[in-house]
Amino acid sequence: MKYIRILVWILCACLVAVAWGQQPATKDQNNWSEFLRTNMMRWNPYEHVLNVNNVGSMVVKWSYSTSDKPPYEPAVANGVFYAASTYAVYALKADTGAKLWRHPMIYPGSPAVANGVVYVASNNKMYALKASTGAKLWRFTTGGYGEGTPTVADGTVYFASDDGNVYALQASAGRKLWSYPTQSVTPAVTNGVVYVGSHQSGVLCALNARTGALLWSYAGQSPSGLAVADGVVYVANDNGDVYALNASTGALLWSYASTDQFTATPAVANGVVYIDATNNMYALDASTGVLLWSYPLGGSASPTVANGVVYLVPSNGSIYALNASTGALLWSYSASMYWDSVVANGMVYVSSYYDKKFYAFGLK
Predict the structure, then answer these.
(1) String of b and e for 281-318 (b: at least 16 CB within 10 Å)?
(2) Which pTM was predicted?
(3) What are 38's strand-pairing partners?
(4) For residue 338, is pLDDT > 90?
(5) First-to-last CA distance in the chain?
(6) What is the DSSP track for 128-158?
(7) What local confidence, expressed as pLDDT, does residue 2 receive?
(8) 31-362: what CATH class?
């Protein structure tokens, strides 16, 4: 009878969550464990603390000073903040900023966290560190520096190296599964397909995630980062164009031309593509490419979207929160920041390059 009551309580809780339009999140759903987030959209649909009505009241909850400059974006998983500085990878308590461990490393990139392991590129190597202690589990050597951040899916780590290859490694042991010759930054992986853009050839490739075999390619002129949502690949280039491609075939669905340059990764949420360029932030209808709004806040940053708010850290050093529906400015904070933010569990996290600090923002 005791177990029946527990099951009934869980069922009621789920029904209430659905009635309020909130999916009951599992343990890891509110994490931001890698650059694109595991849904490949840079969107956290499980954030229900910060919203358009209260985000303007955010304050600094904590900051952590490093001895060198944080070079890339952080990750948050299971109550822990993971980030890199020029010479180390850090793990801090996500709610307080207290240090849990520090692993020395030369020029590490953005971390990705999965199944109790932190994956991070450093120079010409990919490392796997134990998430609880920072102890090294394995490393894999390539012929060039790691690019961007790794993407982890179905027990495989996908990442790019400037030796001109995209690699797939067995996540548990670092064994090479395959490599494909194309220059990429951060691969997007979904539904058994790896999507990678080549800066050198200007070609976007779709690869079989298990074998690395080419499925299709599309020439789009120096594609920047990409996002995948609802069977569509969204990618932009430094000529000022945004493309929407059929994820299964590579067929062009629509394109949008601007006078800007796009060098950042788009975000996709609730039928809208958000992408920043050199002079403006753009919101496009995801199904048609029609411009919904723009905001004069350029700097080629990768937007972060959560609960109706778009967060952006452009090259002017500040962090901004915009209304995702209208583009109206909701909040800003001025600091020497440089890298993109992540949002999880009512907190916004960002690395500040010139301040040599990690920041966490939240409500009072």
Answers:
(1) bbbbebeebeebbbbebbbbbbbbbbbbbbbbbbeebb
(2) 0.90
(3) none
(4) no
(5) 43
(6) EEETTT--EEEEEE-SS-EEEEEEEETTEEE
(7) 44
(8) mainly beta
